[in-house]
Specification:
Elements: H1 2-31, H2 33-55, H3 58-68, H4 73-108, H5 110-114, H6 116-121, H7 123-130, H8 134-139, H9 144-164, H10 171-188, H11 208-239, H12 243-278, H13 282-318, H14 324-333, H15 335-351, H16 357-382, H17 384-405, H18 412-415, H19 419-438, H20 444-465, H21 468-473
Helix pairs in contact: 1-2, 1-9, 1-12, 2-4, 2-7, 2-10, 2-11, 2-12, 3-4, 3-12, 4-7, 7-10, 9-10, 11-12, 11-16, 11-17, 12-13, 12-14, 12-15, 12-17, 13-14, 13-15, 13-19, 13-20, 14-17, 15-17, 16-17, 19-20
Amino acid sequence: MQVAKNYLYNAAYQLLNIIAPIITLPYLARVLGKNGVGVASWTNSLVTYFLLIASLGIVTYGSREIAYVHKNKALRQKKFWEIQTIHFIAGFVALILYVLFIYTGGAFNQRIHQNELFLWYQIWVIFSGMVDISWYFIGLEDFKKTVLRNMMIKLAMTVLIFILVKKPTDIGAYILLLALSQVFGNLSMWFYLIGKFRWPKLKELNLKSHWHPVFMMFLPTIATQIYLQLNKTMLPFITGVTASSGIYDNADKIIKVCLALVTSVGMVMLPRMSAHYAAGEHDQMKKAIHSSMDFVSAIAVPLAFGIAAVGPTAMLWFLGKSWGDVGSALVLLTPIIVFIGWSNVIGNQFLIPTKRLSEYTWSVTFGAVLNVFLNFFLIFIWGVKGAALATAISEFAVIAYQLFVTRKDMKVRAHFVGLWRYLLAGLAMYFAVRYFVANHGIGIKSTLIETIIGGFVYLLVLVILRAPILKRLLNWRSFR
């Protein structure tokens, strides 16, 4: 039951980081326009590379280490300060490198020079990474604190966007609100440690023992972010249009809402699987992974088919007719909902807990290199659609590699026993929704009806096919 609660809390936490931009997305698309949204997206994609340095691989590594020693309070506190000290050091290094980038980049690139002020505003994103201790609470399987505290911050930010962002020239205000909300949200988590943790003496800390595993976790983090952010970074350089980054970014945000529901399983299960591994309960791990893969497939498949069916027309009223290209990009991006969901399970629930970081690193590195290669060709030919297609192909490559390297540990076929049922139900849902779309107008009412029809058809087909997931959902303990 604890896993079920943590899944819901973590799903809410992931959605919370995205839901505020989604709520404001139609408003910003009209107020800031394609160029304004594009500038905000592009400058954020640049600072994200430096945020990687500030964050290292600590969110994943730290939560795993805390999960290993969660019953030993003294050792847990010691590990927290060791890992967080490394976090602070990395953050200061990232800040120095980012400042140098702004000063030198503007001299060599006109686009960077033109947006120098907005790049300075984005520096707060790095500060937010430095003070992020969500990994500690994830390791303790305590997701409630993170959700409730950040909810207030996100709500305040959403209200302020409607108050302060009124015209196309308010790009700076928008960027600052997004960045500062992350800073305050992460700082707020420190209040839970006041009075519970004592400040350590530096001589008590053993930083050396963490440098190598943190660095090994940093490598896949870099690779992952490359093919998550590189598309937005490269689009303006190759197409020559900053607005193209905004089009891709809006499609990406819609997809990430769906991914928040899907990938929450992996983050929730990471500390649980780490504990199983530490206790030598390998059969329990494999059983849980098969259950998680089935659960992820049951959620990801209808989300992918649903977005593909509804997205193209829904974006016309949601963002405005001038944003029609977002719908086309959405359709090409939908497969990654399934691919990332699967790779999240294999990576977060097996490769990372079992300390097979090299294989995990190679999988995401392979995807990143492939993404870079495909971007140069596909963006040049098809622009935003090419960037979306490159991402989908790269994500497929990642999960294919992970399944290949774990084939001797777990039967690949066992992961996908129920997949055919979800695909049939998803196809039935897709055609039912597309039939309705073809015979009705475009608007919020039509989209709501389409969503209801799609959900009903999907569940009906699952009941007819007697999908095991229905029984499993009634017994959350099967995910333990």
